[in-house]
Design goal:
The complex is a heterotrimer of chains A (325), B (319) and C (409). Chain A is of the alpha/beta class and 325 residues long. Chain A has two domains: 3-182, Rossmann fold (3-Layer(aba) Sandwich); 196-320, Rossmann fold, CATH 3.40.50. Helices cover 36% and strands 18% of the residues of chain A. Helices cover 24% and strands 24% of the residues of chain C. Chain C has helices at residues 84-88, 132-141, 159-163, 192-207, 220-232, 240-254, 298-313, 319-322, 387-402; strands at 3-6, 16-22, 29-30, 35-40, 45-49, 54-59, 66-68, 72-77, 210-218, 260-262, 267-269, 275-277, 279-281, 284-286, 289-290, 327-331, 350-364, 367-381. Classes of the chains: A alpha/beta (325), B alpha/beta (319), C alpha+beta (409).
């Protein structure tokens, strides 16, 4: 299996799906002539032409809504937000239209649209360019939220997202675009709502998604050095959640730590913890702990930024705490 | 225009008026809940515009949508049932007054967020162009919409990409209780098109034939030249902003409303058709009787229809 | 046929309307859609329209009248019609809250059937902190959680506390041995005390990282002091142990960690020095607790120790007399044990094992003389007490015993 970067895997997924279905098109800021702000769409303009790889003006609300309109009459838009920070301008279209039109119309409308882009912090981008938006979006019934952690998942999940008839929020990471991994060539689908065990273990379950999976794996390595076998569970899709996988892991380990790059208050981890409490309460030997970003706007200074985002040491410490060691 | 077509337009305006009068009564009798925005006074805009559409053209609008869905051929029974929150409603009782849909008829619904439908219309037009379809999208909005960013982003995209869309402002003079002059820096709203070098027109929204004409021209422009158009139709609502608002109070006088009612679009058109001998008193009586039955039947249908099953709560969230 | 004009619901929140003004008089003709009255809702003044044409036959509500939504306002019909029946009709009872049935009971979001941990109260209404898994294990093993010492955060009972315990079912029920064939061994079921000792000591030895410090102490002055004290009064006989308790208490006051507890994510420093005395029983042992030892005199401590030890031997101690110690002393001097190391009594930070006072040849001023010497070993929980911390404590303890006058300070 060839080893390629995350961005190449996403690029492959889009190229293959655009070849497969003429209704699929890509729209966003700098996706065409500039080749993508993070080079995810590199070469697509040359391959598919400006009718299907469409540069937009800086008008997130406008082109997100345009995507909604195109989707409800049968096209399959991929709307790229340069980063999810900018999606805040487009939330009305995502929340009020993409997520609700099917329901409000009594099922008359389908909404096959993917909103995708980079999420979370990178390096010293400051408070307005470092946000993790998944908690905001997971809140909305009608949306599907996916957050791949490795290139193979990135490809398989994006292909599934494009083929789905529902609005899919696709969370990527600027930092992870350069991560390499083995990715199957051609048809490779990771179904929506199916999680994955990224490292098996018996002592403690560490739940993480997107970039944080790598932090969790690093923590698992540290713990292994102390004889603790952590199981790293990647739900991959955050809505709907692979509850069964999470619960069965906790039933095995009796302890759970959830790692989330977003803020703690009303975070996705809070919901996951709740689901585990409800479904695996009698298997828990310690309260579930969450390791999240600090509850502050992202500071600029490198040392402060480092202190905000979850790291392997914090995750390992939390794991030991639930193990009472 | 053919006599048959003129009579259809007249009859549709009358149907919308009577349907909504009955709607008001049903609201008073607590058969209808929530927000309920009546179209009474604006019938010429919706009927004039829709009468110009061709089969396959699409229409999307805001929350003052009862008249729009009926003009698009929506079933009065299904519309009244939706207002009653019944399973047989056009949106299965999940939409309500502000969210009436009949996709089969080309009507993509009532939208509750001011300007929310404008980028969506733009996208529908984008799809028509993408698939090289002979299709125009009509987008109706209130005059309050032009102050929203979504409106401007959409106009720019439509002009930039030459999309077959017609943006139609139904200027009824008041955004809830705020008159246009207290909300807008300009009076002539189609001037908004100038920023985007877009074709524009202003039309008397009480004159159904004038509206028909200006929309027809915009359709031709969209199809022939691949150009969008911004139209301002000047109209007036005879009722409050919604059922729970007064017809007149601090924001406009009773005298103003009475004066405007003299420009009732239905009476204007009726007089015109009577003069042209297209319409007769006998025909008016016949239409009134037919329509009364249609509307009462719709109420009866809604009344007798079942409530949505609780299981419906969790259906149609996802495909 | 006559029809009723009723108070319409003019806003979603309206329950009552005020009929402000009649624009028509009784007997006047009205058209359908004609405004015939003005009414005030909770939001605004609104016009009331007639929905049917006819004659305003009867005004039921005068101007200024308050009418519930749906209440009769007037009757419209043909001239001369009999409206008595309509007038006598009761106003339609307003639909309750106008909430359609369908919105009342929500079927979704199943509420799981479970008892929140917070509500599990033991019969003596002392809340037991235990993880859900531990509760499940205890229930499966038939173990009473009140007997289990928790080793988790804040003393929470967790799975490992139960893992070491035998299930109630595994403890054979009391019964006469059935004609034991060629008895090569015999069995004795554990009583409650033995079960508790087994669990606590296993827990301690397997989860508390112990280390040990041993020190020899010159007891010459103490031997002399004790003799003096017992010669000077007859009310209470002072034992070496009483003096050791006092010296330990004095030293603990200066070393809060040794008088503390490790609690998972924090240290607990106890305000008071409460010393447990390990008392051997016929089959088992128990540790009655001497409270607030630092603040009390040797005499007081001695008197109370006698009472508690007697009660212990009669197995008459109440739970508050044998729980809650902050430090424990185990003295095997009476068995001529020279030195030994004891197992910490969780959640305490340390335990002092006291050996016998022995006569030993010692060098004093260049001469070999007979000295009284005692060896003690401090077992420490390394999570709260480090080697140096323990050593400094022992040094102070030794200082008190070797210079008993300091205890009077």
């Amino acid at each position: 299996m060839p080893e390629i970067t995350f961005r190449e895997a996403l690029n492959q997924a889009m190229a293959e799906e655009m070849e497969r279905d003429p209704n699929v098109f890509l729209m966003g800021e700098e996706v065409g002539y500039y080749q993508g702000a993070y080079k995810v769409s590199q070469g697509l303009l040359e391959k598919f032409g400006p009718q299907r790889v469409i540069d937009t003006p800086i008008a997130e609300l406008g082109f997100a809504g345009l995507g909604v309109g195109a989707a409800q009459v049968g096209l399959r838009p991929i709307i790229e937000f340069m980063t999810w920070n900018f999606s805040l301008l487009a939330l009305d279209q995502i929340v009020n239209n993409a997520a609700k039109l099917r329901y409000m119309s009594g099922g008359q409308i389908k909404m096959p649209i993917v909103f995708r882009g980079a999420n979370g912090s990178a390096h010293q981008l400051g408070a307005q360019h470092s946000q993790s938006m998944e908690a905001w979006l997971c809140h909305i019934p009608g949306l599907i939220v996916m957050a791949p952690s490795v290139p193979a998942d990135g490809k398989g999940m994006l292909k599934a997202a494009i083929r789905d008839d529902n609005p899919v929020i696709f969370i990527e990471s600027e930092v992870a675009y350069g991560y390499k991994g083995e990715v199957p060539e051609g048809e490779h689908i990771v179904p929506i709502g199916v999680g994955d065990i990224k490292r098996p273990g018996k002592d403690v379950t560490i739940v993480a998604w997107s970039k944080m999976v790598h932090v969790a794996l690093e923590a698992a390595n540290i713990l292994a050095g102390e004889g603790i076998e952590a199981e790293v569970v990647d739900p991959r899709t955050l809505r709907p959640l692979d509850e069964q996988l999470l619960v069965s892991s906790v039933e095995k380990t009796n302890r759970c730590v959830i790692v989330e790059e977003g803020w703690p208050y009303a975070g996705v981890g809070a919901e996951i913890a709740h689901r585990i409490y409800i479904n695996a309460f009698d298997h828990l030997d310690a309260p579930i702990l969450r390791v999240t970003s600090e509850d502050v706007p992202m500071p600029y200074a490198a040392n402060l930024e480092h202190a905000v985002v979850p790291n392997a040491q914090r995750v390992a410490a939390a794991a030991k705490k639930v193990l009472y060691v | 225009m053919e006599k048959k077509k003129l009579l259809e337009m007249y009859r549709m305006m009358l149907l919308i008026r009577r349907f909504e009068e009955r709607t008001a009564q049903m609201y008073g009798m607590q058969k209808i809940g929530g927000f309920c925005h009546l179209y009474i006074g604006q019938e010429a805009v919706g009927v004039g515009a829709v009468s110009a559409l061709r089969p396959g053209d699409q229409f999307i609008s805001a929350y003052r949508d009862h008249g729009h869905i009926l003009a698009m051929g929506g079933d009065p029974n299904a519309v009244m049932a939706e207002l009653f929150g019944k399973a047989t409603g056009c949106s299965k009782g999940k939409g309500g007054s502000m969210h009436l849909f009949d996709v089969e008829k080309g009507y993509y619904g009532g939208h509750g967020i001011v300007a929310g439908q404008v980028p969506v219309a733009t996208g529908m037009a984008f799809a028509a162009k993408y698939r090289k379809e002979d299709r125009v999208v009509l987008c109706s909005m209130g005059e309050g919409t032009v102050h929203q960013g979504a409106f401007h982003e959409s106009l720019n995209l439509a002009k930039l990409w030459r999309l077959p869309v017609i943006y139609m402002i139904e200027n009824n003079r008041y955004g809830m209780g705020t008159p246009l002059e207290r909300a807008s820096a300009i009076w002539d709203l189609s001037q908004k098109a100038c920023s985007y070098d877009m074709a524009r027109a202003t039309v008397d929204g009480m004159d159904v034939l004038a509206v028909h004409q200006v929309i027809s021209e915009a359709i031709t422009r969209a199809i022939r030249d691949g150009e969008p158009t911004l139209i301002e139709a000047r109209t007036y609502r005879f009722r409050g902003h919604s059922m729970s608002d007064p017809v007149h109070s601090h924001y406009r006088t009773k005298e103003e409303v009475e004066e405007q009612k003299k420009q009732d679009p239905i009476l204007i058109f009726q007089d015109h058709l009577l003069k042209k001998k297209v319409l007769t008193q006998a025909l008016i009586k016949q239409y009134e009787d037919e329509i009364k039955k249609i509307v009462l039947d719709a109420v009866d249908f809604a009344e007798k229809s079942p409530l949505p099953e609780l299981e419906e709560l969790y259906t149609e969230i996802y495909s | 046929m006559a029809s009723k004009l009723t108070m319409p619901k003019l806003s979603d929140t309206m329950t009552l309307g005020v009929l402000l003004k009649w624009l028509k008089k009784e007997g006047e003709k009205v058209d359908a859609g004609e405004v015939i009255a003005e009414a005030e809702s909770d939001k605004a003044t609104m016009e009331l329209e007639a929905f049917d044409a006819g004659i305003l036959l009867k005004i039921v509500v005068p101007e200024g009248g308050k009418v519930p939504v749906g209440g009769l306002l007037a009757i419209i019909g043909e001239k001369g019609e009999d409206i008595a029946a309509l007038l006598s009709e009761k106003a339609p009872a307003p639909e309750p809250e106008s909430v359609p049935e369908s919105t009342q009971p929500l079927p979704a979001a199943p509420v799981p059937d479970m008892t929140p941990a917070d509500e599990i109260i033991t019969t003596d209404s002392v809340r037991i902190k235990a993880s859900p898994l531990a509760r499940k294990m205890a229930a499966a093993k038939g173990i009473d959680l009140r007997r289990v010492q928790g080793s988790g955060t804040g003393g929470r009972i967790i799975s490992r506390d139960l893992a070491a315990m035998p299930s109630a079912a595994e403890v054979p029920a009391k019964q006469a041995p059935a004609a034991a064939p060629a008895a090569v061994s015999s069995e004795q079921p554990l009583n409650t005390m033995r079960t508790a000792i087994a669990s606590r000591m296993t827990l301690s030895k397997t989860t508390v990282p112990h280390f040990y410090l041993t020190m020899e102490i010159d007891m010459d002055k103490m031997v002399a002091l004790r003799a003096e004290m017992n010669a000077a009064q007859t009310e209470i006989k002072i034992s070496f142990n009483d003096l050791i308790v006092k010296a330990v208490a004095a030293a603990l006051s200066k070393h809060p960690r040794v008088n503390g507890s490790f609690a998972g994510d924090k240290f607990i420093f106890h305000q008071q020095v409460d010393i447990g005395l390990a008392v051997a029983l016929e089959d088992g042992l128990i540790t009655p607790v001497l409270r607030d030892c630092a603040a009390r005199s040797v005499g007081e401590l001695a008197k109370e120790a006698r009472v508690l030890i007697d009660k212990a031997k009669e197995r008459k101690l109440t739970p508050n007399e044998y729980t809650g110690s902050t430090f424990t002393i185990s003295n095997l001097g009476m068995f001529d044990i020279e030195e030994f190391s004891a197992i910490i009594n969780p959640p305490e930070a340390a335990i002092l094992a006291v050996g016998a006072i022995q006569e030993k040849p010692v060098v004093q001023n260049g001469q070999i003389v007979v000295g009284q010497r005692m060896k003690v070993t401090l077992s420490c929980d390394h999570r709260i007490v480090d080697g140096a911390t323990g050593a400094l404590f022992l040094k102070d303890f030794k200082n008190y015993l070797e210079n008993p006058a300091l205890l009077l300070l």
